[in-house]
Predict the 3D structure of the following.
Amino acid sequence: MALRGEDGLKISSRDIRRLLQQGDVAAAAELLGRPYQLTGEVVTGRQLGRTIGFPTANLAVHPRKIVPAHGVYAVVATVAEQRYPAVLNIGLRPTVSGEGESIEVHLLDFTGDLYGADLTVEFVSRLRAERKFADLPALQAQIARDVLAARERLSG
């Protein structure tokens, strides 16, 4: 049975996959009828985020899951049945010479240890593309702006 939207038009999984690969998580959510989600285990990373004031949970997801385009996203993270607004980065961490693609989630208003926990993120909107900054202070300043933008997008 074909999936159809409210307008009666057929919804293709190919269309959803294309939107996610372009980073258009809001349009993908419209077609899905819900936010796109990724679930994975929180694994140990380099712990650089903690040293610059923005600790992150590094998410290991199943390799067959579709991961949206590199960039920074406003998401809602769920862990142990608790929901938190969050900022998520998908990419190569060019400012800190990252090795390989990573998915890092900074949960707002959360303190604690998440290592080994299952964490689910619901993608709400893309905030910006991933980019390289001149230095760590410039990266910190941008992350602070990302946090404010995510709070704004997730409060409405």
